[in-house]
Amino acid sequence: MQINSPRDLFLHELHLIYDVEHKVRDLLREVSGKITDKDLSQMMRAHVQEMGEEISRLDQVFHELGEKPQRMPCAGIDGIRQDYETIAAQNPSPHVLDMAVLSTGMKIEHYETGAYRALVDRALLMNETVAAQILQAILYEEEETAAKLERMSHDMGQRVLAAA
Questions:
Q1: Residues 70-80: pLDDT tens digits?
Q2: How far apart are CA 139 and CA 112, in angstroms?
Q3: Is the pTM of this model over 0.90?
């Protein structure tokens, strides 16, 4: 895809976040069976369902823009996944693996939050109001998930460190 205009850049970034959402959903499905903390496991399963809804909303954004959804490989999310896999390959204790899942989740949510903030702003600047509203709704959910993960990470860190 040639990037010659602000709209081209917007679409490029929209294709990237579309890839991110698919890859993250796959990763969450993969790690959810390895999580030992019941609250974290439940949260991850619920987030997998939310991600399906987010992908559907992104499909709506593409439709609104008269574009076909495409996945453009996102190196940023691939790197975050690789960092998690490096830790998981070392067979850490279940509590440490749960903490790594939380850390990975926070990195992902903050990555997505930054991407959605830029997309919302650009959609508004291009007068794509409906697309901006849909993207803003996704952004709100990403911010909520990041906050939940941060609280859970802090609480789990306290428990694990107190037991060490």
A1: 999 999 999 99
A2: 8
A3: yes
